[in-house]
Structure formats: structure tokens, C-alpha cells
Amino acid sequence: MLQTLKAVFQKLPVHFLLLPVFFIFSKYVQYEGLLDVYAAWKSGLLITGALATGLLIFFFFLKDFLKAAAAATCTGFLLLFFGDLREGLQHSSSFHFLSLYKIFLPVLTVLLFALFMVLRKSKTAYKTTLFLNLLLLIYTGVEISKLIQIKKKEKQVARENIFNAVVPNSLKKKLPDIYYIVPDCYPSSSYQAEMLAANNSAFDNALMEKGFRVLPNSRSNYNRTAFSMTATFNMAYPNRVNYQKAPDAADYNRAIKNVKLAPLFEFLQKNGYDLVNLSIFDLAEKPALRKEKFLGATTSEMIFSFTFWNYFSRDIFYHWIINKKKYKRKQQQTLLTPLKKYAQQVVDSLLKQNYKSSSGPQFVYAHLSFPHFPYFYDSTGRAYSADSIYTDSMITDRKKFAGYIKYSNQQLVKIVSALLQKTKGNAVIILQSDHGLADLDATRKMDAFRNYSAFYFPDKDYRLLYDSMSNVNTFRILLNKYFGQQLPLLPDSCIYIPMR
């Protein structure tokens, strides 16, 4: 039996078909349930087609099917796992130097050429075929077993995250509407005074006169929107975030998924709340008002993100061959300009209150794109031209940032006034930015967490709040106050995630 299997595995290049299967399964494991199954296997068929093309090319030179299959599989492996190999070397203390393109690319080229010459001079490729078949069978089996364990773990985590607490009937009868409004990248008033020479007291006073409690030393937990909102809505710090490296597509997509499946929304819906989603994230079954491409990636983008072509196009082609600055500005304009229309759509929805679909309480999440760059308006609401927006100083222009905050204040005061009038002061309104801004001075990373938080409770009882509260405790406090929960508060940690 073993001899028969050996004979078959020596003469049948199963490895050629196993490589795409192994690659797709390895990406399933790497991205832990973030991939669309149909799109993933469609990518697998695309890889198989590319390998078949390579097989025909190698057969033309080697005149032997087994040799051509071995050459195609080895070449395909190096091209598919190009980024994984390079990043593995980057994190190696002994072989870090090999990850430099000027060394890494020539070494791979020499290895592929040497493989081609060895195959060409060898009489047969039986041993090579047997070795590749067994290797990829083992690799694929390992990835499948990892995936099974991940699926088991996901079910356990899902069960543990579900709220089971029952809200007392006495509280259910008077549950308030909740408006959670997030002005993106809005910094604290103290930050504005220090870094922008701007006095934000007029805005603070306007809110306090309406009954708000402004937290002077509030903080966000993360300096990136997706991770900040994950911590806020899950009321916990997310797992599987590597704080030593810039987040990749998998990290962002995992954070987006965690926002969507946050137990807060399930809890609210179980207690009769209707979710109104005016944001860039999906919430439970409520789709985003606008999905931002820069926040996540498609299945195919994630699958191919570490391949040779992706690295070549990102690190080599755009960096060395075309005008990087011109390309970057065009890309920024394409990605960011629609935020202007999106912001107005959110503001109009909040002012008009045209989304009420039931008689029960509602939870409204409105994620505004201002005062985050690009700074579309000056302090009076006058629009800037595109040429003056997408510049090298787009992020660090202090004057424009200060002016855009003043414009944002005008919009926020209008929103708050409309909500208070519409709800007769009986709704909870939370004005809380997802993070601050540290780009004005690279040595001041903590500026990234100096956000803005202001709370309106109908009973004006703010004893549960404290001046240095961070976003992760926002809904813990809210559920304790209005839903009879007894959730302990978490440490107010600030975790900096570097940019790529």
C-alpha cells in the first residue's frame, strides 16, 4: 500500500493543485473568519489559472511535465508568500539585513534560477515531486487543523460576550433615546489652547449652558478610529492587536467586524431599542451610511496583500517609477473628497430627525467626518478649493485645523439644539470624539488621545462621570446608570498604534 502511494506521489504532481488550496486555507487562518468564502475560493481559482500558465511556460523550456510542475509550484510559492518571507526576515535579529530589497530580490532571483537549472539537468523529477506532494499535504493539513480550532474558539467567545442581564421592568418603562455623536479627530479644549493657540471656551460654555457635563481631561483609548470604536462599543480592549507594528488589512477588518458584532447593540435591541446607523461602520444588521475604503479591504485585497505583485506595486512601482507625490495627492482626493457630502448627510439627518421608525426608544450613532482632515471649510463655513486642501501640509496646517474646528462647533451646536428641542430634553446625548491628533508634533504621541467628551443626562446627575474618563468606560457607565447594570469600570489606558 505504501509503495503504491509512493509510486503515485512520485509521478503525479498533486502539489501543483495543493498550493492554491494551502494558500487559501493559510489566509483563512491568518484572517480568522474575515474572508468571504465565495470570494476566497474565486481567488484560489485565479491562482490555479496563473500556475497553469506558468506550467505551460516552464514546459516549453524543460520539456518534462513533472519538472515544469515542480518549477511552477516553487515559483508560485515564492511569489504568493513573498511578503510573509520578507516580513519574517524583517523581524529576525540575525537575518534582518536579508529583508532589504537590494538583497532580498537578487537572492530570490538566484534561487529560482538555480532551481530551474537543477531541474533542467536532472534526469527525472520523481523525488522532487514526492517531496513537494508530501510537504504541501502536511502544510495543508496543519492549516485545516488550525482553522478548526479557530472556529471552536470563535463559538466560545461569542457565547461569553452575550449580555444575559435582565433590565428591571421599572427601568424599561422609562428608557431614554440615546444619541452617540462622534466628531472625528476632535481634540480637547486644552489641546487646542496649547497646540493651536485657540480658545474653545465659547463652545464648552454653550454646551454647559444647555446642561452638558464637559470632561476636561477625557481620553480615547486608541489613536486609530476603527480600534477606538471597537473599544468603545465592546466596552473592552480588543484582543489580537499587535501594538508594535502598523495595522494591516486584517487588523482593520477584524476591528470593523468587532464593531458590527459588539454586544452593546445586541443588549440594546433585546431591550426594545431601534438602532439608527449614521456612520461608516455596520452595526448589527444595520448597514453603514457610507463605507470607507481606507478603513478596510475586500477579501481579494486581503488574500493578495502579501504577494509579490502587491509589494512590487506598493513599494517599488509607486515609489521608484512614478511621481509618488502626484499619485498620493490624487489618491487622497479620490478617497477623501466624498467625506464632505457624507458629513452634510449626517448633519441633515440629525437636524431633520427623519429616521424614526418605531414608537420604542432608539439608539442613534452618528459618526461625523469633521474636524478630521481634509479641512474643507474655514471658520466661517467658506469652502476651500481642492488645490488648497490636498497639499503636503494637509494634516499639519494648524490655522486650517483651528478654523475647521470652529466650523465644526457651529454644526455641533445646531445639532445639539435641535436634538434637545425635538426630545424635550429627555434624551441622553453624548458628544465624544474617537481620538485627538498627534501629527502636529511627532514627539507628543499622547496628543493622539486628548479627545473631547461631553455628556447630557436628562436628570443632570453626573456623579458616575469623572474628569479623566476614557471612551472604553462610556457605555459601562451608561448601562449602569440607565439599565440597572453593575459593570465594573476598566483602567483608562491609552494605546498608541503606529502608522504604516
Describe the structure.
It is built from 20 helices and six strands. It has a six-stranded mixed sheet, sandwiched between helices. By secondary structure, the chain is of the alpha/beta class. Helix 3 (37-62) packs across helix 4 (65-80). It is elongated, with a radius of gyration of 27 Å. The protein has helices at 2-11, 15-31, 37-62, 65-80, 82-90, 101-121, 126-161, 169-172, 189-195, 201-209, 225-234, 249-260, 263-270, 299-303, 308-321, 324-336, 338-352, 386-389, 398-423, 474-482, and strands spanning 178-183, 213-215, 274-278, 362-368, 428-432, 453-456.
Mean pLDDT, to the nearest integer, reads: 88
Per the principal axes of the C-alpha atoms, what is the gross shape?
elongated
Summing up helix and strand content along with how strands pair, one would put the structural category as alpha/beta
Main β sheet profile: 6 strands, mixed
Order of helices and strands: HHHHHHHHEHHEHHHEHHHHEHHEEH
- Give me the side-by-side strand order of the main sheet: 2-6-5-1-4-3
> How many helix segments?
20
Low-confidence blocks of residues? none
What is the tally of beta strands?
A: 6
Radius of gyration: 27 Å
Distance between the termini: 53 Å
**Percentage of β-strand residues:** 5-15%
Quick structural overview:
By secondary structure, the chain is an alpha/beta fold. It is built from 20 helices and six strands.
Q: What's the layout of helices and strands?
A:
Layout lengths: L1 H10 L3 H17 L5 H26 L2 H16 L1 H9 L10 H21 L4 H36 L7 H4 L5 E6 L5 H7 L5 H9 L3 E3 L9 H10 L14 H12 L2 H8 L3 E5 L20 H5 L4 H14 L2 H13 L1 H15 L9 E7 L17 H4 L8 H26 L4 E5 L20 E4 L17 H9 L18
Parallel strand pairs: 1-4, 1-5, 3-4
Antiparallel strand pairs: 2-6, 5-6
Helix pairs in contact: 1-7, 2-3, 2-4, 2-7, 3-4, 4-6, 4-7, 11-12, 17-19
